[in-house]
Amino acid sequence: MPNLGDASDVISNGTPSPSPSPTPGAGPTRSQPHIQVQLSNEPPPPRRITPRPSFLENLADSRERQFMLDRRNSTDVDRYFHGPRDLDKHSKWPIFLRLHGSVMPRLVLPLLCVALWSTLITCISRFVQNLGIDNILLTVLGFVVGLALSFRSSTAYERWADGRKYWSLLIQVSRNIARTIWIDTAEREGEEGKQDLLGKLTVMNLILAFAVALKHKLRFEPDVGYDDLKGLIGHLDTFAKEAHDRNNLKPPRKSSWKAAGEYLGISFAESNPRKLIKRSKKPLGHLPLEILNHLAAYIDRCIDNGTLSCSLHQGQAISGLATLNEVLTGTERVLDTPLPIAYTIAISQIAWIYVLVLPFQLYTTLQWVTIPASIIAAYIILGLDTIGSEIENPFGHDVNDLPLDTYCRQIALELDIITAMPPPKVDDFTTRDENLVLYPLSTTGFPEWKDRSVEEIRSALRTKVVANIPVSASTTTIYGSSRSAQSKQSVSV
What we know:
By secondary structure, the protein is mainly alpha-helical.
């Protein structure tokens, strides 16, 4: 009976391994021209038992490439108008001339409509029938519009500020957990120590993966194949991994009309931001929450094997995970609880009613100047309303939204800084000659001060306080002479 090869290779890789060479003296066999006979004694290269998932084919090769996906192949014009703004960029244009960050593109069509409307009312009043009315409504409606826009702006900015606070808290907690894991978690000897080191690096990636997964969840991007995420959580068994769909990563190309409509803020051209979630045929789970479960499992294992033995550090790690869960819940609250739709509709209607009635009130006084005056007033009123609607969801892709990619890149770079060096040992950096313990009073290093008595050290500390008093504080001759004497003493030290 012929040898069929190793059955484990067939099961793990899906294809049978090549059959060995026929035994001398055996009967005729079917020709196999593609079989290569191994002549050397070197063992064959190891074969991957579990095939790499399809979304891990191309990984990000740098931090910049990892978090600048949407701007990688774009032109300078696209990068200028595409948001959120890059905080590292600096513009020397005066603020009132800047277009990047302005809502002017979304006001082009509304202002054009107001210009046509005010021109129509002005021409009718000039050549057909005077439609001017008493401008008492200008004062009454103006007060109501001011209250409505104030309420709209304050609530929208509050949501924007809450989103920034939660992400700053996320950065802070990520630093604390990373420091606890890298510094306070011990590494055992031998092969176990190597496993501990690799386990620490795995947790560092999971801390970053939580931030990146939260960013994608807040932007209604449910997949795991994004370049900034797939290399961090490809080894986890999650619902999002099971529901991976390559089509979600390459949405169909938008027509020029639809792209222009979205840029100009036309509601009919805007797509449903939750469309990818609704089209999923499998349960998507909750990726950030599942990452927290894996982080909690790692901390429990460290407690069990004794590498995280201090109860204080254990409490810090567990409370850090609870804070991450608080950040997750808070950002979801900001995202899923916008201003009640009744307020939004009423404020928009009030603003438009005021703008449309404005030419009737201005014509009697301004005549032809009614047209530019109406356009300017519409820009002010509708601009404030548009800003409120744009920053109401601070986690999107608008120019004035929070730069979540920048925050994730910041966390990634800081984690790299923490893991770049092994946990420092106190005896290594305190006993160096470069450790100027009494600087700037003395440029003598730690080893020389170690040979002196405690009384000399304390006397030098007292001298350091007196010597550091500003010169302007010496207002009397007696104090000046005393300070001069102390300075001489410090020189001798």
